């Protein structure tokens, strides 16, 4: 969690269900307060971590001697009701290159097999003409 100038206020880890829970931020006066939540990249090289920060806007208003706050979130400039980081796992090698190679060999053998049949027919045709 970062304040508006960008100073880190708190760093937490997600729990077993993926939720990130920060300590309450104390606000003691009316106003608009801006924060950003950024994901810290992990060490797993097969994961592409979400680098888009979540903007948090807290509007505090006093009414009847009571201070209340409204919190809104946005990501990439778009308001979001349930902010989340979306990480992507890079796909492991699937053997597609091997499959492509096998298909290429099958196609080539079909082509040469077909060529063999044409040559074989031509030889038969020549034999028939010679007889």
Description of the molecule:
- The protein has 131 residues and is an alpha+beta fold.
- Helix content is 27%, strand content 27%.
- The chain contains one helix and seven strands, in the order E-E-E-E-E-E-E-H.
- The protein has one helix at residues 96-130, and strands spanning 2-3, 31-37, 47-48, 54-63, 66-75, 78-80, 88-89.
- It has a five-stranded antiparallel beta sheet, with no helix packed on it. A two-stranded antiparallel sheet has the order 3-7.
- A hairpin with a 2-residue loop joins strand 4 (54-63) and strand 5.
- The longest helix has 35 residues, at 96-130.
- The protein is elongated.
- Residues 105-131 have low confidence and may be disordered.
As a percent range, the share of strand residues is 25-35%
Separation, N- and C-terminal Cα atoms? 93 Å
Unreliable segments (pLDDT under 50, ≥5 consecutive)? 105-131
Chain-averaged pLDDT: 77
The biggest beta sheet is recorded as: 5 strands, antiparallel
Globally, the shape reads elongated
Level of helix content? 25-40%
Strand ordering within the main sheet: 1-2-4-5-6
Assign the structural class, choosing from mainly alpha, mainly beta, alpha/beta, alpha+beta, or little secondary structure: alpha+beta
Instruction: Give the number of DSSP strands.
Output: 7
Order of helices and strands: EEEEEEEH
Q: Give me the number of helical elements.
A: 1
């Amino acid at each position: 969690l970062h304040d508006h100038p960008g100073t880190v206020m708190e760093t937490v880890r997600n729990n077993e269900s993926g939720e990130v829970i920060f300590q309450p931020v104390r606000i003691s006066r009316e106003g608009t307060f801006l924060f950003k939540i950024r994901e810290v990249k992990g060490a797993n090289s097969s994961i592409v971590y979400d680098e888009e920060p979540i903007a948090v806007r807290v509007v505090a208003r006093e009414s009847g001697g009571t201070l209340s706050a409204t919190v809104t979130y946005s990501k990439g400039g778009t308001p979001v009701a349930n902010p989340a980081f979306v990480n992507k796992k890079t796909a492991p090698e699937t053997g597609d290159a091997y499959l492509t190679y096998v298909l290429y060999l099958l196609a080539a053998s079909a082509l040469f097999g077909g060529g063999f049949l044409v040559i074989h027919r031509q030889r038969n045709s020549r034999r028939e003409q010679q007889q």
